[in-house]
Give the backbone structure.
Amino acid sequence: MNRKLPEQPTKHSVLTDMFARTISYLRLSLTDRCNLRCMYCVTEDEKDGHLVKLGQGEMLTYEELLRVVRVAVEMGISKLRLTGGEPLVRHNIMHFIDNLAAIDGLDDIRITTNGVLLEKYGLGLIDAGVTKVNISLDTLKRERFVEITGVDCFDQVWRGIETALAVGFSPVKLNMVVMRNINDDELLDFARMSQEMPLQVRFIEFMPIGTSTRWNTDTYITSDEIMQRFTSLGELLPLERRQADGPARVFKLGSDARGTMGFISPISHHFCDRCNRLRLTSEGRLRSCLLHDEETDLKSVLRAGCSDADIKTTLLAAIRNKPKGHEMAQRLKEQGGDCHGRMSRIGG
Ligand code: SAM
């Protein structure tokens, strides 16, 4: 199909895709390396330590990343999320973030982290201009934390959460991937935490990304079922949608709650019609939909001595190919099926 993009970008212009969605949000997977081995993220072949890691030369350098971000911001990207793998394990990360923060027009830098290194970096991140932090936490039980992540560092992560609150991140969002018979017996404890602490606790549907992770129809729980489980705790009061909520539907559990609860339902209530995202994987490939395997190779373009105009053309090509939506729910009903990329390279 040879359709024309609605609008060519100019500096600080609005970037729109073929379906009139504004694309303003770029997610960078800075590395595929991680200090945890979460059961829903690493694949079977990676679990026994046979991690298939990218070589240093295979990941984009900081210089390459900064160049791409600068061009993307000129085109209309205004919000950036650093993810991975674990973004905080990449060498010299703070120096990189300082350089990012200096990019004119980039006013919103966020990070998704497992929290292990947040006690060390929390203050530096907020000082450098990172505006929001999402922390993954799937259990409040230390032993289960080891089962889920492969590493005994629950206390460290909890200190990371406390640091994020103490240095002034607001809101601090906790991401819980809900898995039946693995951590769903803790749903009420997480909900209570949203009443007692100034956190946004987000319940994320388990997605089938990466062949042979633990995903199957038994472990998957829909957001509707998760919400049902909270009826005994009190009334779920819907909050007005705000830009910062991203794809989450946000509620308060009772009017006195100090925090909020977010429900992210990429499969059961997908949010494709308002998706504003583009992803850059840690191997330098542009991915316009998390649940579609199609990617555009930006690294080869960068390493062929390209101009900024070539980068723009490649970004536009990826945006032009952004699908209208994914049909994951339908695919799962019909034939099973999952996405082939590795979450650690895509960045969630
Ligand atoms: N290391 C960081 C962390 O743990 O938050 C960032 C990378 S991680 C891939 C980003 C997010 O993706 C995390 O919140 C994680 O829980 C989520 N995630 C990973 N695999 C998932 C899956 N199969 N289904 C749903 N969410 C997943």
Summary: The first helix runs from residue 44 to 47.
